[in-house]
Every structure is written in structure tokens, then in C-alpha cells.
Amino acid sequence: MRLTILGCSGSVPGPGKAASGYLVEAEGFLLGLDLGNGTFAELQTHHDPFELGALALSHLHPDHCADFGALTVLRRYHPDPPYDVTERRLPVHAPENAPDRLAKAYAPNDTELAETDLSDVYEFHALGAGPVEVGPFELRAIPVDHPTEAFGLRISHGGRTLAYTGDTGPCAALDELAEGVDVLLTEATWTDAPGRPPGVHLSGRQAGELARRTGAGRLLLTHVAPWSDAAAILAEAKGEFPAAELVEQSATYEVL
């Protein structure tokens, strides 16, 4: 498996960085993980968006799904798509309310919303029902602790496993998500300073503790907010898991 970073800025895009978005690739199949603000532009520097085989959205905050509208415009209005997009609808694995939520984000007014049904170009699947096959991958979604319905995603292929926390506060579900994974891609939005609200995000220390506790092979930190101290977050994580590293936009990592 290969992981490519389309965006890694937390909560909002940052200077020169898109919000959350990733690609996982194996056997020529492209699985998108989240599609936040700015990630659609970055996607096009790596692949033709029509090459996406499936998309998984961990939750529906804008910094994880805002560019879904841009993808919809491409799939509906490109004058010369490489295939019939209504015959080859893109599978979208997302929270249960995704069809309604994403249609409301796409339609500019109530009149158009009444006529908008994104199922013409997408095939929606609700996360959380159990492991599912997505191309060559096994995708497992585990509910995590965030102010809206949110999932961590565990993706396996060829005996290797990548876990992506999405957005979450500390919770028991994270140990199940990350147990024994080869690569743990985890948010680390802020430092472990006092006064942080519970059940929203992880600190660098908490991300490092999770990797150490679950025996992860590699720890990749993402979703660092532009107003946070990335160096301090990394130092916290390294204090618990010395091999921790901050991801970089456009970088590619092998899941070994």
C-alpha cells in the first residue's frame, strides 16, 4: 500500500497547505480518504480524479469534505469524461446522513436542493456496518469521539494495515482501531496544554501514547492546526513514540 498526503492542515487550510485529504493505493486502485478544503486541487497534481475507485469520508465537517462539491461538478459537467459516470458511479463510504448533507452543501438554494439527488454519479454506503471490501482493500470503520458522527478507518491489504483516526478525542475505540497496525495516521491538532476541550481532538502526547500502547509500527501525525506549534506537537509525540513524524503535503509513504 502507498499513502499520499493531499492535505494535512487541521480544522482549516493553512498557508500552502490544504485541509484533510489522503490517497491510499494498491494494485492500481485509488481509495480517497476525506476531501477537505483545497484537496481537490492537490489530487489533480497526482492523478486524474476520474481514476478514483472509491472515496471514504471519516466525518462531515467541512475541513474533511468541502471539496466533495468540486468533485461533483467534475463528475456531472466534464464535457468528455473517460467513462459514463452514471453507469460507473463512484462508491462513497460515509456517515449515514452523507447523501442529504452533501446535497445541501452542493445545491445553492432550496429550489435546486429539491431537485438535487447526488445518486446520479455516486453510490452511497453508510459506514459502521462491519468490514467491507473496497477494491483490493478491507475497510473497517470504528466510531470515535467527536462532536458529530465520526469514524476511524482501518484499511488492510496484503497483510498490511493502515489506521486513520479521522478527528477524535481520546477514547477506548482508538485502541481497537490502532492495535498492531503497520502505519498509524493520526490527528494531533494541538499540544497537551491544560484547558483543551474534551472529546474533540488529540494532542501530540496523546497520539504518541496511542502508537506506543497499541504497538504501531510507524506513527504519522496530521491535522495540525495552523495556529498550533507543530514542533511542540512533534516533540510531545516523540516523547512517547520516538519514531513519530509529521506528514508533509504531497509526500508519499509506503505502508510496510
Give the overall average pLDDT: 97
Strand order of the largest sheet: 6-5-4-3-2-1-14
For the termini, the CA-CA separation is 8 Å
Structural class of the helices, strands and pairings? Answer: alpha/beta
> What is the succession of H and E elements?
EEEHEHHEHHEEEEEHEHEHEE
Give a short account of the largest sheet: 7 strands, mixed
Short description:
The protein is of the alpha/beta class and 256 residues long. Helices cover 25% and strands 27% of the residues. A 7-stranded mixed sheet has the order 6-5-4-3-2-1-14. It has a 7-stranded mixed sheet with strand order 7-8-9-10-11-12-13.
Q: Would you kindly provide a written description of the structure presented here, covering whatever features stand out?
A:
The strands form two sheets. Strands 6-5-4-3-2-1-14 form a seven-stranded mixed beta sheet. The protein has a seven-stranded mixed beta sheet with strand order 7-8-9-10-11-12-13. With 256 residues, it is of the alpha/beta class. The chain starts with a strand and ends with a strand. Helix 7 packs parallel to helix 8 (230-240). Strand 7 and strand 8 form a beta hairpin. The model has no long low-confidence stretch (mean pLDDT 97). It has helices at residues 39-46, 62-65, 68-77, 98-106, 110-114, 173-178, 204-214, 230-240, and strands spanning 2-7, 21-26, 29-35, 52-56, 90-94, 122-126, 132-134, 137-143, 151-157, 160-164, 183-187, 219-222, 245-246, 252-254. The protein contains eight helices and 14 strands.
